[in-house]
Write a structure and sequence with these properties.
single chain; 731 residues; alpha/beta; six-stranded mixed β-sheet; 19 helices; binds beta-D-glucopyranose
Length: 731
């Protein structure tokens, strides 16, 4: 083989490049003038009607006659209706299950791509489809921190790390808003569990709030320019978020300079009229339980001032006029499911799959006789026209979307396409995970299951290599509940173990949106590819990765523990409502979340934060520091591809204060990038650091502070493997 040897020295100035291309949205002067005029023209009834939404729903909330979410306009003054969709995984309209779009990728998969610019392009793709469907606002993204591996909405979140989440949300917000969709990061704030989600009180100290749970919102507002925020269901330190003046006004508006409007999470977000209005909650979704008529009553009784209503409405009107929402060009002429978006979905999937284990079996040799086994390989046995079919290969709840009936490429189809074969030996192996909703325990000795496993064992025997496609789906991890176990649903563990008795060449492809316990069989398989729910092109991407057409480049955006017991007990979801006994969720692990916790308590993760294997290998060298001012530095270093194939690497920059006078994590992520290199190629990378890269939140002084002293700067391939080190001495 002809060796490729090419060294090119390229200066990649990170962060500064693409971020500059997309700028933040601000409310312009003309819009402010227009809105002041409107406020004079509107009657008090009209004003109040603009402060609550509408939407589908039963009972006391919502309207059975619509499938959409939004706020009704005032025709008399030409104030438009505003429609709100979801763009978490792809465009989705309210609760309409009949409107399909491109299934792009889930947030957890995007987090594992460590490619914020790819996320920015994915956001553009989703924004175009939202606009084509006449949606003005995106209820998302979900940027809450993954605190515990069993969290129901982990699949819908980006990471356990506030820095990684922040960098991603900045790009997403800018892309959405530059494409005409108002973007509403959620759920503000400290919304990390689904158990009793309407009735919990989270107790979090100020430093933990500032360092872990708020940075992604702060970044979304200050750097992304988000003009909407969704208030969460939970209480924070004794007060419900949608009536928490300290959070909605003091921090969000006064401290961060938020110029937009806050809407409540749906149905149960608002708990009172006066407190919510005075706290700065602009819009009640998705009906008028506390706003609407009750609000009007308070005004008429003189308990709520019209100036308060004006101030809430001003924020809302300014945003919708800034976005020039009007009836005329609501439906922009974008093609839904365009070739461009499908290609983007494929790129997202190619970049987000994480290779966790490889004994050398991968990339696969095309001449090997394979069999594909497993309940996730082909899709579930649904009626193709039911929306339920879209629980396959994505999580559940409002974040999921409805993909076109035949759009999703299953792992089986992807591999068959890639090998250009009509059929591949296949066995389902056991019942599909959707048959174990909320991971209910399987029956002991379910003979149907055992017979399915026996059949699969026979298929496995006749192959050189078995590709085992297992995992979960939207019935197993979802908004609305937290998982009670990390075990794979149903008989999947037994399936892997039984196959391993007759076959040593097993490649496991696991599709989940979060950690699952693989300890039962991990040492018995040759390779494990974690392909989180990564969009409709997932099967094609899996095939390309398994056969080496694409070099795996995903890195875990969360810690994959050895055991759930390694997590602090206070982070396990309590079964009781706050109202029954007034017991709070104390976040007593403080700032030690994810890898910060593991490092402080010397816990060994099975696969650490930032981890992922490649088919090639990289070296980092020649580190240098370029000091620009007291706290601003550029860290420059070379990345070399020293292996045999083209590949992408994610250099991660961690900062560690050397002799901290205050409690600080062993180290924290403060920079990263993703670079592609040909074999033999070298690129020079620059990662900038600033004040916040060294600072901690001093809760006595109520400000961010840097303690002068030495800080170790580490460039690593994941959070534990040491590569390059240098030191900065801040005087
Ligand atoms: C969820 C939100 C979602 C809303 C509308 C709520 O239950 O928590 O994330 O946007 O429903 O579907």
């Amino acid at each position: 083989m002809k060796a490729i040897f090419k060294i090119s020295i390229i200066l990649v100035v990170l962060v500064l490049n693409s971020e500059k291309l997309l700028c933040q949205r601000h409310i312009s002067h003309n819009v402010k003038i227009k809105v002041e005029k409107l406020l004079k023209d509107l009657t008090i009834e009209e004003k109040v009607n603009l402060l609550h939404g509408f939407g589908s729903g039963e009972g006391e909330f919502g309207d059975k006659n619509t499938n959409l979410f939004g706020v009704k306009g005032i025709e008399r003054l030409n104030i438009p209706d505003v429609y709100m969709g979801h763009g978490i995984t792809g465009a989705r309209l309210g609760r309409d299950t009949t409107v399909y779009a491109t299934y792009m990728c889930t947030p957890i998969a995007m987090g594992c791509s460590w490619d914020k610019y790819l996320y920015s392009r994915v956001a553009t793709g989703i924004a175009k489809e939202l606009r084509a469907y006449g949606q003005d606002l995106n209820l998302g993204p979900t940027i809450n921190i993954i605190r515990h591996p069993l969290g129901g909405r982990n699949w819908e979140s980006i990471s356990e790390d506030p820095y990684l989440t922040s960098k991603f949300v900045i790009e997403y917000v800018k892309s959405m808003q530059n494409n005409g969709v108002i973007c509403g990061p959620k759920h503000f704030a400290v919304n990390n569990q689904e158990t009793n989600r309407f009735d919990i009180n989270n107790e979090v100290d100020e430093r933990t709030l500032r360092e872990i749970y708020l940075p992604s919102f702060e970044a979304a507002v200050k750097e992304g320019g988000a003009l909407n925020i969704m208030g969460a269901y939970n209480r924070l330190n004794g007060e419900f978020m949608c009536q928490n003046r300290h959070m909605l006004t003091d921090i969000l508006r006064k401290e961060w300079g938020f110029e937009g409007f806050v809407l409540s999470d749906f149905s149960n977000g608002v708990r009172s009229t006066l407190k919510a209005a005075r706290a700065g909650l602009n819009i009640e979704m998705h009906g008028a339980k506390f706003y609407g008529e009750p609000m009007l009553d308070y005004i008429q009784k003189g308990e709520l001032k019209e100036s308060c209503i004006d101030s809430l409405l001003r924020d809302y009107l300014c945003v919708i006029y800034e976005f020039n929402i009007n009836y005329r060009d609501r439906y922009l002429d974008y093609k839904i499911h365009s070739a461009e978006n499908i290609a983007l979905a494929k790129e997202a999937a190619q970049n987000s799959a994480v290779l966790l284990k490889n004994n050398g079996i991968l990339p696969l040799d095309k001449s090997k006789k394979i069999a594909i086994i497993g309940p996730n390989a082909k899709g579930f046995d649904y009626n193709q026209n039911l929306p339920e079919r879209t629980y396959y290969l994505q999580g559940g709840g409002s974040g999921r979307m409805y993909y076109f009936p035949n759009a999703i490429v299953s792992p089986y189809e992807g591999i068959r396409n890639f090998l250009n074969k009509d059929e591949i030996p296949y066995a389902i192996g056991c019942k599909t995970p959707n048959l174990y909703p909320q991971n209910k325990s399987p029956q002991i000795n379910d003979y149907e299951e055992l017979i399915m496993i026996d059949k699969a064992v026979e298929v496995a025997k006749s192959a050189d290599v078995v590709i085992l496609s297992i995992g979960m789906c939207g019935y197993n991890e979802s908004e609305g509940w937290d998982r009670k176990t990390a075990k794979l649903p149903g008989y999947q563990d037994m399936l892997v173990r039984r196959i391993a008795e007759v076959q040593k060449n097993i490649v496991v492809v696991i599709n989940t949106g979060s950690y699952v316990d693989m300890s039962n069989w991990e040492d018995k398989v040759a390779a494990i590819l974690f392909a989180p729910y990564c969009g409709e092109q997932i099967g094609n991407a899996i095939a390309e990765i398994l056969y080496g057409e694409v070099c795996p480049s995903g890195r875990l955006s969360f810690t994959w523990p050895t055991s759930l017991e390694d997590y602090p007990t206070c982070s396990i979801f309590r079964g009781k409502k706050y109202t029954d006994g007034k017991i709070s969720n104390r976040y007593s692990e403080g700032i030690y979340v994810g890898y910060r916790w593991f490092e402080k308590h010397n816990k060994i993760a099975k696969y650490p934060f930032g981890y992922g294997l490649s088919y090639t290998s990289f070296e980092f060298k020649n580190i240098s520091i370029n000091k620009k001012s007291r706290y601003d530095y550029d860290i420059d270093f070379d990345v070399v591809n020293v292996g045999d194939c083209k590949g992408k690497v994610v250099p991660q920059l961690y900062v560690a204060e050397q002799t901290p006078k205050t409690d600080r994590p062993i180290k924290e992520l403060k920079g990263f990038t993703k670079v592609e290199l040909l074999p033999g190629e070298t690129k020079r990378i620059t990662i900038p650091l600033n004040f916040r890269s060294f600072a901690y939140y001093n809760d006595n002084k109520e400000e961010w502070e840097v303690t002068p002293g030495k800080f170790k700067i580490m460039i690593q391939e994941n959070s534990i493997e040491k590569n390059l080190e240098t030191e900065i001495d801040i005087k």
